[in-house]
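Could you help me review a protein record that somebody else here produced? My question to you is simply how this chain folds and whether the tokens agree. Thanks in advance; the entry in question is below:
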Amino acid sequence: MIQVGDTLPATVLMEFSEVEGNGCSLGPNPVDVAMATAGKTIALFALPGAFTPTCSAKHVPGYVENAAAFHATGVDEIWCLSVNDAFVMGAWARDQKTNGKVRMLADGSAAFAQATGLTLDLTSKGMGLRSNRYSMLVKDGKVVSLNIEGPGKFEVSDAATLLAQAKA
């Protein structure tokens, strides 16, 4: 399992873009994790699934509401990762009004989740292999802080916890 001090896995996530620009075409675009984190501070949080109750009602809104506060601490970008496809993440981004605040990144095949060891098997609930709920502060591709939730919990991966760590 990934730990503080480790480098993020060299994987590729996908991001849905509704507007062409900055080298991105319309539709899904690859995001090379190593390249996208190089020289940046990233507030990253992951969750089991788009449009799920806790994720939509509490997890994503907390980061959207605190985007300016994160940037004031020196965080360059906020990333939300989920084991969904880029089209679902794009639709969820519209629903949650994350544009310009939180990048909604798809880990469609759970490659990132598996490489970090932060998976959650929800096969019995019809959802298959998913990401565990967690947050981490990443500087230049390395994990600076890591907050992993227990099963069914939402206590330490929230925006307030990671924001306090970013301020420290």
Observations:
- The domain at 12-167 is CATH 3.40.30.10 (Glutaredoxin).
